[in-house]
Design a protein that fits this description.
alpha+beta, 3-stranded mixed beta sheet, 3 domains
Length: 454
């Protein structure tokens, strides 16, 4: 969750809860989304109207928090999914607009740490600087240093459970007559979100990724340190990291600076998957900060990585399978590609599967890594939409392994961010280096073993 922002005076009495109230809110969101889709289909796009619909979506999703807000965050940075004016409105969900009242925050801190914020910190800002899907962030000082304190909303786990109860039923219906195990994918999503509600787990991942990047890219990647004395299951305190938010950086940076940052983000994502076997599975722009070159000795292209609540680990066998697929696509080796895809378990009926169409989709996905000098832009991102519609001949023929949804979320999320940066450079070298990297999975506390991938 981003540390950027100036806070907001608006405060919620609470999150929309209860089956009836959340179902009603979900209905309002769905109605707004259908209006946008209908307007685009009949060619009646209107920037002012699309912006107002976007504002309505933001208000409703910001009130609901939880899973609904997460979906809005994902939509906010995928160009071509919604009108530009709606994307612009949804960006506000990346840090949130309204948090819960301070007395609610104070009660959460006291329940977790045994004392009030004023007793635990040198000073503690009443207004949050970010209010996202699971918790909100406040600026504070501890032992003379600036810190960020993330406080979980009360009863947010129960809110997620109510949402997933509905998703489970919808997933069962949606997977009928397909090879996709909808309930299994819904269970996978639920497992990751439940893990995200455990701030002790996030603290372990912050330490693990921080150590890994301090060794691999010490000047380019910054991960906040955890203040253990002021952290618990529902409160996480970290060092404060200065930097511009994503959109401020894009506005002030020149093409060379944007490209340097893009290359750093690509190194982080691909090395994390192919070498570390673990990824930050929530790659939206609100989870990055971009320090000025003179801040904290940061180098050009430096990035602060925030929010390691949603982390997905992968078994080596799965990563090696995707490694083989990537190498076959980059080499344009169709025979090796078909063998590699079969080995992933994604093709339950090879005789009915269109391998040529699947190759075409992945050739688009890996195009930035074929030759040096590729430039990401909105047109490249929008081009991918054609593979997600009903014209995809494998839509009902592919079985999606549970880890695959997170690997694809990483790749598509990375590319969406690089498209907004309009980053250009030798992305092929980064991919080849990641593919050839030694397998060195991140070590975490044994208490986290239940989060391992399959």
């Amino acid at each position: 969750m981003s540390q950027a922002g100036d806070g907001d005076d608006g405060a919620l009495d609470g999150i929309t809860r209860g089956w009836g109230r959340r179902a009603w809110s979900t209905g309002r969101v769905a109605a707004s989304a259908l209006r946008l889709a209908g307007r685009r289909l009949v060619g009646r796009a209107d920037g002012a109207v699309d912006g107002r619909i976007g504002d309505a979506l933001v208000r409703e999703l910001d009130q609901m928090k939880g899973l609904a807000m997460k979906v809005g965050q994902i939509l906010s940075y995928f160009d071509g999914v919604l009108p530009p004016e709606t994307h612009a409105a949804l960006r506000r969900l990346q840090t949130g607009q309204r948090g819960v009242r301070f007395d609610v925050v104070a009660a959460q801190i006291e329940a977790a740490l045994g004392a009030s914020p004023d007793a635990l910190f040198d000073d503690f800002a009443r207004a949050p600087i970010a209010a996202a899907s699971i918790g909100q962030v406040h600026r504070a000082r501890f032992e003379g240093r600036p810190v960020a304190v993330k406080v979980q909303y009360p009863d947010v786990v129960e809110t997620f459970e109510a949402d997933f109860a509905r998703i489970g039923r919808l997933a069962s219906l949606a997977s009928l007559a397909t090879a996709v195990d909808g309930p299994a994918l819904a269970a996978e999503l639920r497992a990751r979100v439940v893990e995200e509600c455990d701030y002790r787990r996030e603290a372990r991942w912050l330490a693990a990724f921080g150590a890994a990047w301090a060794e691999a890219l010490p000047d380019a990647v910054i991960v906040p340190d955890v203040i253990e004395a002021r952290s618990a299951g529902t409160v996480l305190t970290t060092g404060w990291c200065p930097g511009d938010d994503f959109y401020s950086f894009v506005e002030r940076a020149d093409p060379a600076q944007r490209s340097a940052v893009g290359l750093t983000l690509a190194r982080v994502a691909l090395h994390s998957f192919f070498a570390l076997g673990a990824i930050n599975a929530d790659p939206h722009p609100g989870n990055y900060l971009f320090p000025r070159a003179k801040q904290a000795g940061a180098a050009d292209g430096a990035v602060v990585l925030l929010d390691f609540g949603c982390v997905r680990r992968f078994e080596r066998a799965y990563v090696d399978g995707e490694r083989a697929v990537a190498r076959a696509v980059l080499a344009d080796d169709r025979a090796a590609f078909e063998a590699a895809v079969r080995a992933t378990g994604m093709v339950p009926r090879p005789d009915r599967f269109d391998f040529a169409a699947w190759f075409e989709m992945l050739a688009w996905q890996y195009r930035p890594y074929v030759a040096p000098g590729f430039r990401f832009d909105a047109a490249y991102i929008r081009e991918g939409a054609r593979f997600n519609g009903t014209r995809n001949p494998n839509l009902r023929r592919v079985a999606l392994p549970r880890p695959w949804i997170w690997w694809m979320r990483l790749v598509w999320g990375l590319h969406a961010v690089l498209g907004r940066l309009q980053a250009q450079g030798d992305f092929r070298e980064i991919m080849v280096t990641a593919l050839d990297a030694q397998w060195c999975p991140l070590a975490v506390c044994e208490a986290d073993s239940a989060g391992a991938g399959d």
